[in-house]
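Page 37, continued from 36.
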């Protein structure tokens, strides 16, 4: 199936790109992943979930929390919130005329100005004149240890056998703040070392959930990073590192090589080394333009696509219609 524009991923910039492409009347397809969700989408899901939990003061909520002896309920709540978030975006995209495919994509190759890729939910190959990678990043642990204290991966709080009594979540932006708020609501005494973003809505929700937030380790009673954590009686969850969701895309098929963090090298118009393939949003690395708002990034990519696919002039259409008549 052929398209003018195909967008892979569910990062914020990907949805901005899809809205612009649909508004320009390009034949557009969104390939939304089933499992490799971007940190942005997970953050949006956590914000919705935590807001609902803070508002709901019913006996059902208290009974639900009382049964939270294991992380299974937490995991089910997060999965449900992610599914709800994806479903809402699918409805929005379908309403503006975007074709939606739910599945994991992988590149097959590029030929005759068309990029080919396979999608796990379909048997046929999808081809597009322009393809935009907006898979975003995920939060993970740093390569180096956090002092001498053993630390846990972000997902470990949702997959372990028991919730800790005390925890300290380091970094992670909205994902880290959301994770802190969620476990705090389930009775875990939680501290969060945040970035300098004291106006974040997620941090406000975390504070409302009882999380102790500091923008420096000392503000939450922690030593400096790199110092021994031997006296800290808490489980440390380290999610300071962002890694791009690109390792499953088979980028070598189009001669695009991500960096060691899974992020993409792009030109000023966000085009990769492969002509017609763009990176957008958090998945783009090592460029001052990554600081631009996702909507501005999408506009810059759309401008490049518009120049490459010119619209037929009204006079040309009239001449063809007259000749046919």
């Amino acid at each position: 199936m052929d398209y003018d524009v195909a967008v892979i991923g569910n990062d914020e910039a990907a949805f901005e790109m899809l809205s612009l492409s649909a508004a320009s009347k390009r034949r557009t397809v969104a390939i939304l992943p089933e499992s490799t969700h971007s940190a942005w989408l997970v953050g949006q899901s956590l914000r919705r979930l935590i807001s609902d939990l803070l508002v709901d003061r019913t006996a059902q909520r208290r009974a639900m929390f009382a049964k939270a002896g294991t992380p299974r309920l937490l995991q089910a709540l997060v999965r449900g919130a992610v599914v709800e978030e994806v479903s809402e975006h699918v409805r929005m995209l379908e309403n503006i005329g975007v074709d939606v495919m739910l599945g994991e994509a992988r590149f097959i190759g590029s030929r005759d100005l068309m990029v080919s890729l396979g999608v796990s939910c379909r048997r046929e190959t999808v081809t597009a004149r322009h393809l935009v990678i907006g898979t975003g990043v995920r939060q993970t642990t740093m390569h180096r240890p956090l002092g001498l204290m053993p630390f846990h991966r972000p997902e470990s709080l949702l997959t372990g056998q028991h919730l800790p009594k005390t925890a300290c979540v380091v970094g992670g932006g909205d994902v880290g703040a959301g994770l802190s708020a969620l476990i705090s609501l389930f009775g875990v005494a939680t501290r969060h070392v945040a970035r300098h973003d004291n106006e974040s809505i997620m941090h406000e929700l975390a504070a409302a959930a009882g999380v102790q937030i500091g923008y420096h380790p000392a503000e939450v009673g922690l030593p400096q990073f790199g110092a021994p954590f031997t006296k800290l009686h808490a489980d440390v969850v380290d999610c300071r590192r962002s890694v791009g969701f690109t390792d499953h895309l088979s980028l070598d098929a189009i001669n695009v090589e991500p960096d060691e963090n899974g992020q993409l090298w792009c030109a000023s118009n966000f085009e990769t080394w492969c002509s017609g393939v763009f990176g957008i949003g958090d998945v783009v690395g090592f460029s001052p333009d990554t600081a631009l708002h996702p909507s501005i990034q999408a506009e810059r990519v759309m401008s490049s696509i518009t120049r490459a696919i010119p619209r037929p002039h009204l006079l040309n259409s009239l001449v063809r219609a007259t000749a046919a008549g």
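The CA atoms of residues 2 and 127 lie 5 Å apart. Flag for discussion at group meeting. The first strand starts at residue 2 and ends at 8.
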